Amino acid sequence: MPDPLIVVPDDFPSIFKGTPAEQRCARLGEIRVFSERGADAETELSRRLDGASVAINIRAHAHFTDKVFAACPQLKLVSIWGTGTDNIDLQSAQRRGVTVCNTAGVNANAVAEHTIALMLAVARRIPKLDGEMRTGAWPREMLTQLLGKTLGVFGTGAIGMRVIALARALGMEVLAWSARGDTPRILAAGARVAGKEEILLEADVVSLHQRLSPETRGFLGERELGLMKQPAILINTGRGALVDKTALLTALTNGGLSAGLDVFHEEPTKMGDALLALPNVVLSPHNSGQTPEVVRDGLLRVVENIENFLRGQPTGVVVG
After folding, report:
1. Looking at the structure, do residues 257 and 272 belong to the same domain, yes or no?
2. Which of 5, 86, 177, 300 has the most CB atoms at less than 10 Å from its CB?
């Protein structure tokens, strides 16, 4: 096989250019890196990928649709930095003979830590107290202690399992739900296997760690949020669309729900988004996995996946 053309169409904001991963990747063939936004448009993404046999997908705003795959018939591999594949038409990739790989697990520790940080920030009302103190106030309100509380974890991949371990270290009881039937791993981690409705009824805190797919879109809607305790805390570091937005806003406004959110239905969020005005929500800009360690290790794994694919031994395969 001749040296491939490897294209990074969406390195914005840039994390790939000038890294050891780029240098290692350049040894595999010609490499082109686009560090300006624009790959979120199908026609522009197709233009950037023209002639490429390998694409490195950095950002979820680049949507590899059937139209893009059709316009790029030479494309044979999409190597994703991260775990999520909701921006990739996997059925189209499979139909057109494109292998899709990801770097599952690389960001598990970072995202799990951020999950716990959001949980504590909401429970202890840290942003609110910080803001009030900066105005000269000395607030004396009651806070929530997590010791002895029940955490419900939806999704038991690497991130969910690490969240279970950290929550257990805080003294929380943990209920876990897995679509894959991970009962032995859940029990070994000291958690209890539970059904979806059971978790919603019993948990003081619910944390979402599933991939977004047609089956999980709107996983929590009006009915599910209505089953949750009052008060309760919802943490979402998975994908915004795992929760129905209208139902979420209603529960946050009218119910006893508070939330810590790192992911949103529209990213970046826009001024005027109703979530931005709610005092019982702690927000972070989809950066739970943004640590130097995750960036370094994830990008190197992206290149390793390409190396293995070119050797005929693909790794991290989602579709192929």
Report:
1. yes
2. 177
| Set 59, 63, 286, 301: catalytic member | 286
286 is catalytic: yes
C-alpha span between 99 and 227 (Å, rounded): 41
β-pair type (54-57, 5-8): parallel
> Which domain range does residue 29 map to?
5-106+291-319
Gap between the Cα atoms of 57 and 100, Å rounded: 10
221 in Cβ contact with 248 (< 8 Å): no
**Catalytic annotation on 209?**
no
- The CATH number covering residue 140 comes to 3.40.50.720
Extended beta strands in 218-280, E state: 232-236, 257-261
CA distance 195 to 200: 9
Catalytic residue among 48, 114, 125, 239: 239
Q: What is the dihedral of CA 50, 52, 57, 63, to 10 degrees?
A: 30
Cα–Cα distance for residue pair 238/209, rounded to 1 Å = 5
Show the tokens assigned to 100. 């899709």
Sequential DSSP letters for 43-68: HHHHHHTTT-SEEEE--TTS-B-HHH
pLDDT in tens, 227-284: 999 999 999 999 999 999 999 999 999 989 999 999 999 998 999 999 999 999 999 9
Does residue 248 share a domain with residue 197? yes
Query: For the segment 157-198, what is each residue's pLDDT rounded down to a tens digit?
Result: 999 999 999 999 999 999 999 998 899 999 999 999 999 999
- Strand 99-101: give its sheet, edge to edge: 30-33, 5-8, 54-57, 77-80, 99-101, 317-319
Q: Is 192 a catalytic residue?
A: no
User: In angstroms, rounded to a whole number, what is the distance separating the alpha carbons of residues 201 and 54?
Assistant: 46
From the list 267, 296, 304, 307, the catalytic residue is: 267
Q: Answer yes or no: pTM beyond 0.70.
A: yes
Dist CA 259 CA 237 (whole Å) = 11
